[in-house]
Amino acid sequence: MTVFITGASSGIGMACAKKFAANGYRLILNARRQEPLRQLADDLQKQYGTQSLLLVFDVRDRQEAQKQIANLPAEWQDIDILVNNAGLALGLEKEYEGDFADWDTMIDTNVKALLNITRFVVPGMVARNHGHIINIGSVAGDAAYPNGAVYCASKAAVKTLSDGLRIDLAHTPLRVTTIKPGLVETNFSVVRFHGDKERADNVYKGIKPLTGADVADCVFFAASAPEHVQVAEILVLATHQASGSVICRQ
Fold this sequence. Notes:
By secondary structure, the protein is α/β, with parallel strands linked by helices.
């Protein structure tokens, strides 16, 4: 079985790679940075004997994505599971004060890139009559929270795109799952705050957040369900988080 994971060089994507490797899957690993991918692939090969194929490109680059996926070696073309994980948040400002470049990057990565990869991978799944698409959304896609309107909108799009794809594939055995995590302690907040580590650390103060491995467990649970079981959505939160905006800090 072959799993294609975008944004696999860190965080949830890396945790998913480790989870699937531990269970005997082959991996197609994508990210913009080659060295972390190579190190991950080496580690997984040593630990589990995992076969990995590295695809180094920015998922926002539609032409490059199409070229690399179209030119997969023959033995790697039959993708069984696609994990659309690449995504990010940038900035935490009021909508009327937001940064245009941050908006463009979030929309291009969280929405358009997900569409790109889906468009290039899913037709092969349909032709083979087999496959599972797992999109990493967010609790932020359920309701907006202060100063996060554009990120929340992009993750709401992930949910509706997943729902629409599930409808479009209902006549096939293909399955579509959305995983919607709450607070996950990865480099997410460091990226959001443009490298401000102190501000990022404050996001998780007073609460034990989820880890990338917690989310990867949910991804694998959905992927390993019986063929007739389609786990449409999983909303997973830290114990003291009730929604995107309600967090009880101790």
